[in-house]
């Protein structure tokens, strides 16, 4: 033991941290799988791969990977549209794309994605998760679309009030949420047990002792749940619709993982995240998950922050957490069958609520209203349309806003009384500001000579230059000297 400690000086801390992360990850792995419409064991498989495979690879030493609530909505849509066998193909291709992007050193470019778009994406996901899991907590079937889920809540409430079993199921879910909300306020010793695990254990105990009529997790067994994609599943690659989902998986999983890496770096003083290597590590993990027919993985900030707070020092903690998940799945699979589904729904309602950045929206509204608008529009678009198109709408708005802000231009007219009017343009003259520029120039007197000075411009695009020269030719009346254009030096 002394020799082991001398060779691995952080082993004791990493071992303790791995147990904490395992206890945090266990209910989340199962809950995300159930909410995604796949066997509960597949969530554990992704957690195991995230710990043992991704955990061993370089990139970020302390962040922990596994199934994430942020991909729940997208996975549910994919399974509903293409079927469970195709999920492995989707995740496999996603992993291969991440490996290629990491090899091409594109990981760092994900940091260029607008934070408002990412937070809007997470807010939209959170809203859809909350709406969908409210139905699951009551034991009801949820509508397919995000808007349908929200619009159907009043009718669902009427159904719940008319059913004793639905009321009991909803009470178990509500009790789970209450435990999660109140848990951080308990004494420190009590909080040694992660809140999500405590909430699920208490709900399971209540359901057993009181013999409550609530649905529980269906168990298939680890090896029965793992089904590598066959030839028929790979045949789905001929379906063009599959590629939009693959692109969404790749974009969202990569962005969430790398933003998580940046957040985890702020929690510790150890080695910084190497973004390209971390993207390849995520790609390797997703490739293995795809070959096993499991859920896609991302780095998860909840598990990663728990890992740091528990005192982890090296990647050994996240690898060991994967080992504990493997031992649990292999030795105690029947324990999953005791977990009430409304308890898992309560865990995900709480997780969805935490995805909505209320404080960030308020701060952005006071300081950068354009960014706040992008965040809200992205979230609403995801709820109203779907995940992929909602993110594209947010990205498009972000690009338009950036282009608009980058095209600042100022027109200053100097009238010295005698001689020509001098019109000085400074800044960036692009087609986005062209109507404003022309309106100001056309308001100048047509019976006086004008000098148009463009030397103060940092940028003059072709459309704007053509329009300005056209205005100069047309502006002056007969008998007045034509407009003299002073162009910037080449």
From TrEMBL:
Subcellular location: Membrane
Gene Ontology CC terms: membrane
Domain annotation SLC26A/SulP transporter: ranges: 11-378
Magnesium recorded as keyword: no
GO biological process: transmembrane transport
Keyword RNA-binding recorded: no
Transmembrane segments: 15-35, 42-62, 82-104, 116-140, 160-183, 195-221, 323-353, 373-400
Signal peptide stretch: none
Top-level taxon of origin: Bacteria
Membrane topology: Multi-pass membrane protein
Keywords from the UniProt entry: Membrane, Transmembrane, Transmembrane helix
PANTHER family named among the record's database cross-references: SULFATE TRANSPORTER
Name the UniProt record assigns to this protein: SulP family inorganic anion transporter
Lineage: Bacteria, Bacillati, Actinomycetota, Actinomycetes, Kitasatosporales
